[in-house]
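Dear support,

I submitted the protein below through the web form. The confirmation email said the job was done, but the results page showed an empty box. After a refresh the structure appeared. I'm attaching both so you can tell me whether what I see now is the final result or a partial one.
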Amino acid sequence: MTLSAAIRKALEKRFGQQARFDVPMSAHTSLRVGGPADAMVLPHSIDELTDLMRLVMDEGIDWYLLGGGTNLRVRDKGIRGVVISLADGFCGICPDLSGNRIHAESGARLSAVCRHAIESGLSGMGFAIGIPGTIGGAAMMNAGTADGDMAGVISDLRVLFPPERIETVSRNDLDYGYRELGRLPVASGAPILLSVSLQLRRMDAGRLKTDAESRLARRHASQPAGFSAGCFFKNPKSSRSAGELIDRAGLKGHAFGDAVVSDKHANFIINRGGASAGDLLGLMEQVQTRVRNRFEVSLEPEVRIIGEE
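What the results page shows now:
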């Protein structure tokens, strides 16, 4: 649903400069592609967020919650409705050393949460060193590596069920799977994650810092630079990773327009600077077809694809 002039005026009146219009999503995704969103709103408090949710729900306006934009590909025609970003108003991080926990609002950068854990002498977030995006996005997609994932450290989530119901959900009540939260067991409708509590372990901060530097160096050595969304495909339920299958299919360096499969890591699709969302989609489909034809394996995107066709 395209926003009417009246809705734009209402958003501007309530949120002022926190409401922006015709926002190019290419500026808000790590792939640097995507057409304009009708509106982007950056609420700074629970009251503002619940007011926004009442407005969009009462008016039947489509909405989308934006994390760090690091696991997202927006189509070239953009997004109709309202994009909601919690990156400005919901980014607090509070270590709780008495309970070996960290409480982080969902808009906080994952890198900042890892840094707070290291400085506080709290172990358990090593797997996340170098993963981009927000803690909220990481929790919702169960981000992880071979060394661990978010499901292994989450204690509980504070969740808004729009427009205004807020509940705390224990890790024991969550239905985590591979690269997905699954479903929340309370209420219906699309939830908005407000904050995450992490249960960690005490360890010497110096050892944690050394380990983090080593992990980060290995990540930089094995993964390409440039505009990407990290690993583009989920690893299939087989002995071979998505990257290995793509490599064995001879697709490293294969390009579609200005989108290319990385020579360094085959599960990275890189925007060389001028790619459109259509280029990325075309390359994705070619990779899926080649791998399916050669290995009879269907690769599923890890990257979320949204926006108007």
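Response: this is the final, complete result; the empty box was a page-load delay. The chain is about 30% helix and 25% strand.
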